[in-house]
Specification:
Helix content is 37%, strand content 24%. It is of the alpha/beta class and 286 residues long. A hairpin with a 2-residue loop joins strand 10 and strand 11. The longest helix has 18 residues.
Length: 286
């Protein structure tokens, strides 16, 4: 494949993953997993990360970042004690961002460019990229979750990412930065309820088997049972990417990097999907 999405993944962004000194032992598996995943994905020589963060929330429109450079200080507005201000500097891809907006409009997804020179990253964008690509070797385009978008629209938005990558000849890795179950409680050490954790583990297993049709068939029930983060919108966008790959004849398989881990009642995991050939090349160990 000369252009298109070469892999797609769901990754954790728990704010305590941002700094080693505040990461509890039970979440260290997520950090180590993201670091290994990043090394493996970078070995595929991607041109671009496209990352959907559940902490960039848009009400109506799908935005794509169109800045040539992403440089700023990330502060977690909900947890400034945990992420009080961490610097980042990555290249952007304005051409891809603009083309993605046009493709979204073509498939009747409401969209606009984010060209603000004052825009700064949320921690759902910053945290995983700080582990996946700590030296900022790969360009980044960020996209939000959209409150007015139901799963069907998220699927179309995800498919458009693959279509845009093919048209521009970009080798893209799509990242859904999100928890799985997200019924939060006070107490960072607390696990999800047994029913929600079991649903997450089944979801992960289906992804690892590349069973996208099965995941989609049960997705509404899954996201409601688990109280999936932001209604499962970032997950649905990832599934739209995966569905588009399968429609192109790609036989998907998955690998998990690190263990499933809790954070205040949420469930978190790092799982990558790609062709079996790609996984055999870069991601055999997980």
């Amino acid at each position: 494949m000369t252009g298109g999405v070469i892999a797609t993944a769901v990754v954790a962004h728990v704010p305590t993953l941002s700094r080693k000194e505040i990461t509890p032992d039970f979440q260290d598996t997520l950090v180590q997993g993201e670091q290994r995943l990043g090394r493996d994905l970078r070995s595929l020589a991607p041109d671009l990360w496209v990352i959907a963060s559940t902490h960039w929330v848009s009400t109506f429109n799908w935005f794509a970042t169109c800045q040539a450079q992403h440089e700023g200080i990330c502060v977690a507005d909900e947890a400034p004690d945990l992420i009080p201000g961490l610097p980042y500097h990555y290249r952007g891809d304005a051409e891809f961002g603009a083309a993605l907006v046009e493709e979204w409009k073509r498939v009747e997804v409401p969209a606009a460019r984010n060209e603000s020179p004052h825009y700064e990253w949320d921690y759902g964008t910053f945290v995983p990229l700080s582990h996946l690509d700590p030296q900022a070797q790969v360009a980044v385009v960020g996209v939000p979750v959209v409150l007015m978008a139901e799963p069907a629209e998220c699927l179309r938005a995800g498919a458009a990412i693959h279509a845009t990558a093919k048209r521009l000849g970009r080798r893209v890795v799509f990242i859904a930065s999100t928890a799985l179950t997200h019924a939060l409680v006070r107490g960072r050490h607390l696990m999800p309820t047994p029913e929600r954790m079991q649903a997450d583990l089944i979801f992960i297993d289906q992804l690892k088997r590349g069973e996208i049709e099965t995941v989609l068939a049960g997705f509404d029930d899954y996201r409601r049972l688990t109280v999936a983060e932001m209604g499962g919108r970032a997950l649905a966008t990832m599934l739209g990417v995966a569905q588009a790959l399968k429609q192109d004849g790609v036989l998907l398989e998955g690998r998990q990097y690190g263990d499933y881990a809790q954070s205040s009642g949420s469930g978190n995991a790092n799982v990558v999907l790609a062709s079996g050939e790609t996984l055999a090349t870069c991601c055999a160990s997980g």
